[in-house]
Amino acid sequence: MDLKDELYYSATDLLRRLIQTPSVSREEHEAAQIIGEALHKNGFEPHRAGNNVWVLAHEIDNDKPTILLNSHIDTVKPTESWTRNPFNPIEEENRLYGLGSNDAGASVVALLSAFVHLAKTPQPCNLIFLASAEEEVSGANGIGKALEQLPPIDFAIVGEPTGMHPAVCEKGLLVLDCATHGKAGHAAREEGINALYKATEVIEKLRKYEFPLVSEWLGKVKLTVTQIQAGTQHNIVPDRCSFVVDVRTTDRYSNTQIVKILQSDFPDVEITPRSLRLNSSSLSVQHPFVKRCLLAGRQPFGSPTLSDQALMPFPSVKIGPGQSSRSHTADEYIVTDEIREAIELYICLLDQLHVEKN
User: Fold this and answer.
1) CB 76 within 8 Å of CB 24
2) Residue 214: how many CB atoms within 10 A of its CB?
3) Which of 197, 336, 348, 355 has the most beta carbons within 10 angstroms of its beta carbon?
4) Rounded to 5 degrees, what angle do the CA atoms 18, 20, 22 make?
5) Tens digit of pLDDT for each residue in 64-123?
6) pTM (2 d.p.)
7) Nearest CA-CA partner of 276 in 170, 173, 177, 179
8) How many whole angstroms separate alpha carbon 101 and alpha carbon 89?
9) DSSP state of 225
10) What are the tens digits of pLDDT across the range 107-140?
11) In angstroms, rounded to a whole number, what is the distance separating the alpha carbons of residues 22 and 24?
């Protein structure tokens, strides 16, 4: 049997085991155990922090740069519209169905297979494989918990369904809790200052609001008002109106900059970010990995979806088997040939790859 065939069959067997093992965010314990067993079977001694599992190809050489191969083992909850058992890996017409098959089980097993193969030969970079938890909820016990214990990383591959094209830019996320303030009064009389009216005026301005800097890959920063709440009863003019703004940021602004600009442009609105940690990311097309992708006929693009890249303070790229459009959908699947292609392409792109130390 050809070595690549052996890697492929091992990867699909592992993916079936993962599908059979429920691993909703924050409940990945058993899936982490399965990954650890697979690594141990291949001769590695895995490390674990919570439900994050990682392993070094060899002892770290501090003179070499370090590359991280990462994807996540958690899934969203299955929707009620599934027509199949989401935890029963059924293969039909070259499609392997199951929750997490596309997002991101196929990336996990393909990256693990490539890591096992590459670790057998000397490489110019240290290699680390990490299967992380809580990606779908950007949880505190996810990849951040693992990165605290890893050596400095110089470059990362993030396995997510991209059709094996490199996402060199990814949007960040900023959720803003906002409020306008007025003065309470009786609705039957001409008194009070209606905070709800003030909010609707602000929301209309936000609907048309644009940040001047436009990203080459991601376009404009996108603001969407998604929730609003005001008033305690029908006959009282509300003195406070709260609303939520979902902001999808680009590489032209940090989340901190976005907040400061909005607070300056809307001084009468209370604007409080829930978190500043999920920033946009970007990678130059001149990076050695992207150049290899171009030589392999793969096209760089900007991704509107969030991943663990948002928590990586080092250069990274998102690339993996499957399609983003299948993620979080009923009857999720991965085409089995996509797994084979991913293993071969990961190896081709990473073997003897030279990157700079940060």
Assistant:
1) yes
2) 12
3) 336
4) 80
5) 999 999 999 999 999 999 999 999 999 999 999 999 999 999 999 999 999 999 999 999
6) 0.91
7) 173
8) 9
9) E
10) 999 999 999 999 999 999 999 999 999 999 999 9
11) 6
